[in-house]
Specification:
With about 110 residues, this protein is of the alpha+beta class. It is built from 3 helices and 6 strands, in the order βββααβββα. The chain has one domain. It is about 25% helix and about 20% strand.
């Protein structure tokens, strides 16, 4: 199942009790603002987390020892549809590949 990132103007409808905005419907931008507010209301240095905090990482599966760098918090909302939406363009492409428009070639079924 593949998903896609939501743009700021996309609208989300969900259980209000699970929503960061406490609302049944919210724009992605409002949901992200509510998530930021949640972090800002805590004692976490959110600006530092967004810019990156100096650290070292030891990757368990990669090996190679400790590596210096930064760790940062990246927030995004991703939507994963249960069934991919079939567009008219996709339907048209499928139809043309099954039933060619050109009749200039003889058909083996004629």
């Amino acid at each position: 199942m593949s998903g896609f990132d939501l743009s700021n103007d996309d609208v989300i409808s969900m259980n209000a009790q699970l929503s960061f905005t406490d609302s049944k419907t919210s724009k992605t931008e409002d949901m992200m603002d509510a998530i930021r507010d949640l972090f800002n209301s805590s004692d976490l240095p959110i600006d530092e987390w967004l810019d990156g905090i100096e650290c070292e990482v030891l990757q368990a599966k990669q090996g190679g020892g400790w590596q210096k760098g930064k760790i940062r918090l990246v927030t995004r909302l991703e939507f994963i549809p249960y069934e991919p939406k079939q567009t008219e363009k996709t339907t048209s492409a499928i139809t043309h590949s099954i039933y060619p428009v050109s009749n200039s070639q003889p058909s083996e079924f004629s």
